[in-house]
TrEMBL record, chain A:
The chain crosses the membrane at residues 120-138, 176-196, 202-222, 242-259, 265-286, 298-325. PANTHER family: ATP SYNTHASE SUBUNIT A. Belongs to the ATPase A chain family. It comes from Hymenobacter arizonensis (Siccationidurans arizonensis). It is found in: Cell membrane; Membrane. GO terms for cellular component: plasma membrane; proton-transporting ATP synthase complex. One of its GO terms (molecular function) is proton-transporting ATP synthase activity, rotational mechanism. It is a multi-pass membrane protein. This is ATP synthase subunit a. InterPro entries: ATP_synth_F0_asu, ATP_synth_F0_asu_bact/mt, F0_ATP_A_sf. Key component of the proton channel; it plays a direct role in the translocation of protons across the membrane. Residues 1-18 form the signal peptide. Keywords: ATP synthesis, Cell membrane, CF(0), Hydrogen ion transport, Ion transport, Membrane, Signal, Transmembrane, Transmembrane helix, Transport. The gene is atpB.
TrEMBL record, chain B:
InterPro entries: ATP_synth_B-like_membr_sf, ATP_synth_b/b'su_bac/chlpt, ATP_synth_F0_bsu_bac, ATP_synthase_B_chain. It comes from Hymenobacter arizonensis (Siccationidurans arizonensis). It holds the Pfam family ATP-synt_B. This is ATP synthase subunit b. F(1)F(0) ATP synthase produces ATP from ADP in the presence of a proton or sodium gradient. F-type ATPases consist of two structural domains, F(1) containing the extramembraneous catalytic core and F(0) containing the membrane proton channel, linked together by a central stalk and a peripheral stalk. During catalysis, ATP synthesis in the catalytic domain of F(1) is coupled via a rotary mechanism of the central stalk subunits to proton translocation. Component of the F(0) channel, it forms part of the peripheral stalk, linking F(1) to F(0). The b'-subunit is a diverged and duplicated form of b found in plants and photosynthetic bacteria. GO terms for cellular component: endomembrane system; plasma membrane; proton-transporting ATP synthase complex. The keyword Transmembrane applies. It is found in: Cell membrane; Endomembrane system. The chain crosses the membrane at residues 12-31. It is a single-pass membrane protein. Belongs to the ATPase B chain family. The gene is atpF. It comes from the Bacteria.
Amino acid sequence: MKRLLSILLCFVSLSVFANEPATEAANEQGFNPGEMILEHIGDSHEWHLATLGEGEHASHISLPLPIIAYQPNKGLSMFSGSQLAHGHSHNGLKLEEDKLVAEDGSKVYDFSITKNTASLLFSAALMLIVFTAVARGYKKNHGRAPSGLQSFFEPVIIFIRDEIAKKNIGPKYERYMPYLLTAFFFIWFNNLLGLMPGAANLSGNIAVTLVLAVMTLVITLASSNKNYWAHIFATPGVPKPLLPIMIVVEFLGIFTKPFSLMIRLFANITAGHIVVLSFISLVFIFKSWAVAPVTLAFGLFINILELLVAILQAFIFTLLTAMYIGGAVEEHHDADHQIGGGDGADQAHVPAHAH
Amino acid sequence: MPAFLNPELGLIFWQLVIFLLVLFLLGKFAWRPILLSLKEREDTIDNALRMADQAKIEMQQLKAGNEKLLADARHERDRMMQEATVMANQHRDAEKARATEEANRIIAQAREAIQQEKNAALAEVKNTAAQLSVDIAERVLRRELSDPAAQTQLVDAYLKDVKLN
C-alpha cells in the first residue's frame, strides 16, 4: 500500500511539474483533483450527483437536502436546501463554502440533514429492514435450517459472538452483544455503501467514528470493575518508584484506546476513497485516454481491496471494542498483556495505508 | 486544519441519535430473537447429540444384557441337558440293575423250584422203588419159589413191567 501511494505521489507530482507552464490553462479547465477529492470525502448540504457541461456553462444535478438550523436568538428553522442554492440566502442564513452561516454573523448550530446524515438515515433504515428480515427468518424457520438472508448473516453473527465476544469478554459477553453486532454491521454496511458511486463517505467521517469510539469508551468505563482501576492506579508487578509514570501512562491509555479506534476507521476509509479517486483523477490530469487502462486496473484493484478493508475495519473495530470491554470486566489479571500490550498487537491488523 | 478533520456538530448529533435508535431497535427486534434462536438451536442440537449418545450407551447395555441373557439361557439349557442325561443314565442303570436282580431272583426261584421238584421226584422214586421192592418181595414170597433161577426170572419180569418214568 505504501509503495502504491508513493507511485501515486510520483504520478501526481510529475503531472504537476508537467502542467506548471500551463497552470492558467488548467485553471480555466476548472479541474482540480485535490478539490474534487476533498469534496468527495467531505460532507455537503446537497447530494451532488453529476455535472453536465464545463466551466461557465456547467449545470449541476444534485438532490437538495433539508436545512435544519438552531440560532440562539431566532430559534429553530427548517427549510429545503434548494433555497440556499447559488449563494442565495433564506431566513437570514446562507452557505459559505458549504458552511451554514448567519448573514448577521451570529452563532448558528447546524443540524441539517447533510449528505452524510441522509446516508446515515438510509443505512439505518437498510439495517433495520435487513436484520428484522433475518430475525423473521428465525421465527419462520423455527427448528429448521436457516434460509436466504438469514443463512448469509448467521455465520457472521456467530463469528462475532464466538470469536470476538466470547473469547475477549468472557462469560459476561451477552450484555455487550447488541452493541458489538450493531457496531460491526453499521461499520461494514457504511463502508460498503461508501464505495458506491456518488455515495457519501460516512464511515470515513471523523464525526461518525468519534461517536462510535466515545460509545466504546462509555461502555468500557460503565462496565469497568475494581480490577480494571486497580490495574491502572496500582499496576501489578511494577516497582513503586515507577508507579507515578505508569499511572499517567495507564490513565492516558483509557483515552488513547478509543482515540485510536476513531482515527483508525476514519483514516482507513478516507484514505481508501482518496486512493480510488486519485486513480480516477489521473485520466483528467493526463488528459489522455492512454492512461485509462492503467487507471482502471489500479482503480479496480484498490476498489476490490477496499471491499476487503470494509469488512476488515468493521472486524477490527468490533474486536478491539470487545478487548477493551473484556479488560474492563475481567476478574483476574493473569494475562497482563491483554490490556497494556493490546495496542501494539492491534497494529499488525491494520493495513499500511492507515498510517 | 482541513474541513474533513473537523467533526461537525450536526453529524455528531445525528450519528448519536440514529445509532442509539438503531442499537435499541435492532437490539429489541433483531439481535435478541436472533441470539435466542441461535442459542435455542444449539441447545437443541446439543441435547439431541447427548441423547443420541445416551441411546447408544443404552443400546449397548441392552445388547450386552441380551447377550448375557442368551448366554445364561444357553448355559441353563446345557446344564439341563447334562442333568437330563445324567438322570436318564442313572435311571437306565437303576432299571438295568433292577431287571438283573429280578432275573436273578426268578432264576434263583426257578432253581429252587427245580431242586424241590427234583427232591420230590427223587423221594417219589425212592418211595416207588421201596413199594416195588415190597411188592416184588411180597409176590416172590407168595409164589414160594424154590428155584433161584425162576426167582431171578420173575424179578426180571416184574422189573420189565415197572417203567421208571
